[in-house]
Amino acid sequence: MDFFASGLPLVTEETSSGDAASEEDDEVVAMIKELLDTRIRPTVQEDGGDVIFKGFEDGIVQLKLQGSCTSCPSSIITLKNGIQNMLQFYIPEVEGVQQVMDDESTEKEANSS
């Protein structure tokens, strides 16, 4: 998190999904990806799973759970209590987290957070 506080420019990979987003949205997405890669994914991978960033729209982070996380009965608890709480703590723009099944990254279910 020291890097984000330093004000240095962020380097992100190109994303081809959705409409052209504002500069602030790009910054938020970069912060989400950084947090996922450095703090969340290593922990999930220790349990034989993985979490893949699928998108960020209207304050909702869309994630796909893979590996042992797809069949784990506590994956929703991990998603809501673990991942969502951490993202909201560091990134105020995040309002919630939604699990995406397969490649339906644009289809949403009702969010009951």
Secondary structure layout:
Blueprint: H1 2-6, H2 23-46, E1 49-57, E2 60-67, H3 75-90, E3 96-99
Parallel strand pairs: 2-3
Antiparallel strand pairs: 1-2
* DSSP strand tally: 3
Query: Helix segment count?
Result: 3
CATH class: Alpha Beta
Instruction: Tell me which CATH architecture applies here.
Output: 2-Layer Sandwich
Largest sheet: 3 strands, mixed
Q: State the domain count.
A: 1
Could you say which overall geometry the principal axes of the C-alpha atoms support? globular
Describe this structure in words.
This protein is of the alpha+beta class. The chain has one domain (2-12, 21-99): Fe-S cluster assembly (FSCA) (GMP Synthetase, Chain A, domain 3). Helix content is 40%, strand content 19%. The protein has three helices and three strands. The chain has a three-stranded mixed sheet. Mean pLDDT is 75; it is low at 12-21 and 104-113.
Task: Characterize this entry briefly.
The protein is an alpha+beta fold and 113 residues long.
List key phrases describing it.
GMP Synthetase, Chain A, domain 3; disordered C terminus; 3 helices; 3 strands; globular; alpha+beta; 40% helix; 113 residues; 3-stranded mixed beta sheet
